Amino acid sequence: MNPKLPYVLLVGAAVIIFILSCMLLSRGGRSPSCESQPSVVEKTGSISQSLVFADLTPEEMSQVVRYLQGHLGVPLVDASRAKPSDNCIASVDLQVPAKAEVLRFLDGGGARPPREALAVLYFGNQPDPNITEYVVGPLPTPAYHRDVTVQKYGGKVPYHRRPTLGSEYKQLEVFLETKALAAAPTFLQEVLEYDGTNVAFQTTVPHGFQSGDRVTWFVLFQNVSGFFVHPVGLEVLVDHSSLDVSQWAVSRVFYNGQYYRDMVQLESAYVQGRISVEKVRKAPWDGDFSSMKPRAPPAALFPVQFEPQGPRYSVRNNQVLFQGWSFAFGMSVSTGLRLFDVRHKGERVAYEIGVQEALSVYGSNCPGGMSTRYMDGSFGLGRYTSPLVRGVDCPYLATYVDTHSLSDSLRPKKRKASLCIFEQNLGSPLRRHYSNLQSLYYGGLVNSALVIRSIATVGNYDYVWDFIFYQNGAIEGKVQATGYPSSSFLHGDGLRYGNRLWEHTLGTIHTHFVNYKVDLDVGGVKNSLVAHDMAFEMTRAPWSPEQQIERPRLTKKVLDTEEQAAFRLQSRMPRYTYFAANSKNKWGHQRGYRIQITSFAGDHIPEASSMERAISWARYQLAVTRRKEEEPTSTSIYNQNDPWTPTVAFADFINNETITNEDLVAWITAGFLHIPHSEDIPNTVTVGNSVGFLLRPYNYYDLDPSIYSHDGVFFTSEQDFTACEINPLACLPKTASCLPNFPPFTYDGFQNM
User: Fold this and answer.
1) CATH 2.70.98.20 given to domain 336-379+461-525+559-698
2) Buried (b) or exposed (e) across 70-97, using 16+ Cβ within 10 A?
3) 159, 461, 463, 497: which one is catalytic?
4) C-alpha pair distances (Å), 313 with each of 129, 476, 621, 747
5) Sequence-distant (≥ 6) Cβ neighbours of residue 225 within 8 angstroms
6) What DSSP string describes 551-576?
7) Which of 86, 93, 341, 376 is labelled catalytic?
8) Is the keyword Cell cycle assigned to this protein (predicted)?
9) What CA–CA distance (Å, rounded) separates 344 from 359?
10) What is the pLDDT of residues 55-104, one digit of tens each?
11) Residue 466 annotated as catalytic
12) C-alpha–C-alpha distance, residues 245 and 81, integer Å
């Protein structure tokens, strides 16, 4: 045997192994990265036009602040450290131009409206303290300001109506810690083990029982993670109506079912053994049962959506384009996410869609809980928009947008990734049919929709705000509620007002009501409101007269006045209520958009209540009124602290004006009842806690516009449905085999707190 033969065989084997390895690596190696394809975008007008609705830039906000500091002739203190007796800038936001001016610019080739800001100022350092609103412009270089307070509200806004600044809450906390609690050292040490840091305070609103009051119950909790469900049984009523902080005083104290004149009396009663003490077990820093830390280790990753050929939508400045849709978006300090100039197939269907208010009314047998009526717009649904966590709050590969605001400070604040935009495959068909009669075929369309989302965290609650755009021309507005339930200390007959969630925790019963403004422009600005429904009629069968048939028939009614178009919460509303255009479709029907509401709301509050007018928008599941520049919102940020003399009362909008062939606005209210239960621990889930509305084309088109979608699938029994040119899904293994480019996970939610 040739001695070189083993070496030759070894070399040959090595070469074969190398070749096979290369082949395996080439087949089983890493897939190529996904590459974006040129997107098909219909012409929808100039992108720069959408900037007429754009939020103020940080530079513009700063310019407004500098202008006001130099032109009002009074000292302005930074709101972040202002006392009630100071003058300060509470907020600066976009002043949206009048609709007529904007439409002349967008549609008529008119001049761009001047860019202006709306500044809210608190004047506490004046003989007549008041709240004043100024329009400042033109931006970016302000040269004028005008007081619009009287024009908007019919008079000056009293100072006691001002939303509470963060600085005032800090001053109240200092008062509670250094003055109020200091008066009962023995009680606090022995009952609460108080060390100056282990107690958290939660405010309640409104502040009192009548106009002019500024008296607030503060509920005490253990200062741990998820403190909202750790009440200790102590609540303190503070009178902070004086602009002089040194004059603030405790008006009443509540502990474990008993009321006391002040903390001194509570201390005396405790020392003398005249108090029924219910000592709460001290919770660890993570909150124990209220901790949101997962109780299970990580396992297989949840499903993740990606776009194999890149996003099919575009975001430029404040405009979004998607599958025939276009709209501008913005973020109001008080009302949060809002949309303008919403168009489908190039035609405007809505001028403005946005949230107006979020209301919660609580019940309890503790004073703080039973007196709470939160109107979250006063706190600021936009101000408290939170940074979004990639992959949980929104899909990982969504487009994330930073927003800016100026409130409670002289400097603009940047909120990183506080708004997200994404296309979502909803995992179900938008429409489909499988034919097994006569001809054999399948036709369907995946329900893929565009979502724009923000999440506001106002105290204990998190509100997930969505606007969703479907390929059939429908728009959905939806809110999902999550976060922590608010709670009271469980004592006495507490179970009349909720469920027991833990040893001393009563999950207090409460309602949620959300109000939207929807300014539809269907086929033009002028619309009418029409109601279609069904009624049964009795008739004899023509072919068998002795037999009776109950057949449904269509009922039609034009709702001529605002009274006819105001549907109370518990009233029966026509099931097809729509904005009708002055034009008709191919089949002779008035083109329209239908309003469909998803709500489980009960009564908002008895109308005999002294504060009901402040939330009178909640009387109606739907109210349609004439659009007026002097009625821009259904409520006011000043209603929270003086609901007894509301600055804006929505009930006054409805005054029997005709609404036929007019510019109309729909005010939509949706809500639900929440009775906290054990599954709300550690906190509330979104499932089942979602309400909202749909805007759906009703004879607006000649046929369903989604038939023109590129996503449609159709094949017959005689076709090769495995061929890509017949069925694009057959190409999925090839077109979707790329690897998405996942950016590194980042989060800025804990910066600059």
Assistant:
1) yes
2) eebeeebbebeebbbebbbbbbbbbbbb
3) 461
4) 50, 18, 33, 24
5) 285, 286, 287, 290, 291, 292
6) EEEEEEEEE-BTTTTEEETTSPPPSE
7) 376
8) no
9) 32
10) 999 999 999 999 999 999 999 999 999 999 999 999 999 999 999 999 99
11) no
12) 13
Q: Which tokens belong to 468?
A: 């969703």
Domain 166-290 of CATH type 3.50.50.60: no
Plot region of 523 (φ>0 → left; ψ -120 to 50 → alpha; else → beta): left
Rounded Cα distance, 85 and 78, in Å: 13
Domains of the chain, residue spans: 50-155, 166-290, 336-379+461-525+559-698
Rounded to whole angstroms, the Cα distance separating 448 from 424 reads 5
Residue 379 backbone phi and psi in degrees, to 5:
-75, -35
Question: Tokens representing 467?
Answer: 């606007």
CB atoms within 10 A of CB 516: 23
Phi and psi, residue 30, nearest 5° = -65, 135
Distance (Å, rounded) from C-alpha 467 to C-alpha 93? 22
For residue 455, which amino acid is it?
I
- Do the domains at 166-290 and 336-379+461-525+559-698 have one common CATH topology? no
Confidence of residue 37 (pLDDT cuts 50, 70, 90): low
The DSSP symbol for 124 reads -
Rounded to 5°, the CA angle 417-423-429 comes to 150
Question: What's the rounded Cα separation, in Å, for the pair 527 and 20?
Answer: 72
313-351 burial string, b = 16+ CB within 10 Å, else e? bebeebbbbbbbbbbbbbbbbbbbbbbbbbbbbeebbbb
DSSP secondary structure code for residue 702 in this structure: S
CATH number for the domain formed by residue range(s) 50-155: 3.10.450.40
Closest CA to 231 of 246, 219, 247: 219
The closest of 442, 454, 460 to 480, measured between CA atoms, is 454
**660: helix, coil or strand?**
coil
Q: What is the pLDDT of residues 233-266, one digit of tens each?
A: 999 999 999 999 999 999 999 999 999 999 999 9
Asked if residue 643 lies in contact with residue 373, where contact means CB atoms within 8 angstroms, the answer is: yes
C-beta separation of 196 from 182 below 8 A: no
Sign of CA dihedral 101, 102, 105, 106: negative
**Using an 8 Å Cβ cutoff, are 88 and 122 in contact?**
yes
Type of residue at 356: Q
The candidate with the shortest Cα–Cα distance to 396, out of 711, 743, 14, is: 743
**Residue pLDDT, tens place only, 528-578:** 999 999 999 999 999 999 999 999 999 999 999 999 999 999 899 999 999
- Cβ contacts of residue 451 below 8 Å, gap of 6+? 420, 421, 422, 423, 424, 466, 467, 468, 469
**Phi and psi torsions of 247, nearest 5°:** -95, 0
Identify whether 461 is a catalytic site residue.
yes
For the record, the structure tokens of 66 come out as 């500098």
> 120 by DSSP, 3-state: which?
strand
